[in-house]
Design a protein that fits this description.
This protein has 136 residues and is of the alpha+beta class. The protein has helices at residues 36-44, 111-126; strands spanning 25-33, 55-60, 67-74, 80-87, 94-101. The chain has one domain (30-130). The chain contains two helices and five strands, in the order βαββββα.
Length: 136
């Protein structure tokens, strides 16, 4: 898929979304280095042209501590599958952590499955490739 991004940043209200359901998430640290080009792709996000595109991705921030929140939703249902916290502080750009939906909606994803989903989606949709060690 990996379409070229326009200069417009995808906004949360550009597509149907649902929030995480209470008590149905897990969070773990995840230290993955990112390039400035990767950060730009994450900030831009992705708005599907149709439900067949499978994903809607938008970012929030960065906040005053240099943290960017990248949100991944399924395009058909709007279900929030994951949120990745990215440190965009110059010189140390990296993913800090991942929070994922571990409820019935996502077949109770494990930590490894959630990381695989995010890594695959970032690569396929945004062109952001993680190092091979990212899923170990």
């Amino acid at each position: 898929m990996n379409r070229s991004h326009s200069t417009t940043r995808v906004q949360p209200l550009d597509w149907k979304t649902e929030s995480f359901r209470p008590n149905q998430t897990n969070t773990v640290a995840w230290n993955i280095p990112l390039s400035p080009a990767d950060i730009n792709s994450l900030i831009a996000g992705f708005q599907p042209e149709s439900m067949d595109d499978r994903w809607f991705i938008y970012s929030e921030g960065p906040n005053d501590r240099g943290k960017l929140l990248v949100n991944l939703h399924r395009s058909w249902t709007g279900i929030k599958v994951a949120q990745v916290v990215v440190d965009v502080t110059s010189g140390s750009e990296h993913i800090d952590s991942i929070t994922w939906n571990n409820g019935e909606q996502t077949s109770r994803l494990s930590s490894h499955e959630a990381k695989e989903t995010v890594a695959g989606t970032f690569k396929w949709v945004l062109g952001v490739k993680f190092p091979e060690t990212a899923l170990q």
